[in-house]
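fyi for ur records
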Amino acid sequence: MLHAKFNIAILKVMTIKRGIMRKIQFSSKGIIASFTLLSAALIAPNVSATNGLYGIGYGAKQTAIAGSGVAFAQDPLIAALNPAGVVEVGDQSVVNLQYFSPSREYTVDGSSGGAAIPIPGSTVESNSESFFIPSMAFSWMISPDAAVGFAIYGNGGMSTDYSARDTPFGAGTFAGGDTGVDYTQIFTNFNYSRKFADGAASWGIGAIINYSYLEMKGLAAFGGSSTDPDALTNNGYDHSLGFGLKLGVLGEVMPGIKLGGSYQTKIENEFDDYEGLFTNGGEFDIPATAQVGIAADVGPGVLTFDVQEIFYSDVDAIGNTSRSLLTGGQLGDSVGFGWDDMTVYKLGYTWAGADGWTWRLGASYGEQPIPGNETTINIIAPGVIEQHYTAGFSKVLDSGNEVSLAFMYAPEECVSGASLLAPSDSVEICMDQYSIDVGLSF
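which gave:
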């Protein structure tokens, strides 16, 4: 029956809890896992997501210009956008702490009453709204034309926590008690970059080790529509290691104008404890992304403009439609949650003031990836933000170190559509966000 069908899964990045990683079969993999988990522990991975599952930028300097820095290297965290820029920042270290506050809610309207889930009623808000998100990066020149770097940062983060007591009759969002997702992605990026064309251009490559963990709860009512009801929900935390590459180029094409571009490969993740939920028996890969941009000297500062493409549709668990539940599709097989690819436009301006001050402004826009007829399965993952407005500054201290601040505000965006499980009802999902970053470069 329709009410027994559903798929859901996705993200929130949060502090690594309870036990670190299941038994790893191969010793070489265990060494990699141990190092990656140590890196993850260092940055307390409560990770933000603002463009669907992806963050707007990494660190205060990138965030303050809305992530429009693929052609504009400011500190070693450029490795997260474009590893070709690391050779431009020289010997440098940066640590960053972000306070991230997303607000998520859903409303179900209609006349079906308790005959279908989710049950119509008043607006239900997610309880998880405050997170602290560290990141860090380091770069070293190994010759006048080459550099190596190391960066740790997070991505994803759609944490939701809907308490059953806030839902009609205390049943839970999907009649399974407390409902939510806790999902973390951590990236450890080892990078190498080198200048060419007499120093006018550079290329870079980042080898990425990814550690992810995930917990789902509150979906037991859909066991009849799963290939494996015992691996559908409430199985605690499952863990996955993934590997990928970040490739980039950067060059000055004429005096005062630089172009840059980067591509990150899809990273495979698999969660065996939730193979009854995710497509292809537990696959939940991290989508590939590409970004191109320009940095141009304009007036007293640098104008940056980037375009980012996120390939959500290439990951079955994300891009496959949930509508196949209506024609016999099953959780754990081919049902996804229906996200489209996302194109994000990013604009920023950075200019130097007197006495060691630098000022930044930015804005970005990308049409959110969730169609109206997919809102039901995305109650847990309402990644519907479209606009970001940012500002920030840096100040060089007497010690020579530099402190940076950034502010981001994403106004509320809502998407509504007919309920998948009761077409006479409508489901609306909404989200808004703000963040404050503090960074120190030395």
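The mean pLDDT is 89. thats all i got for now
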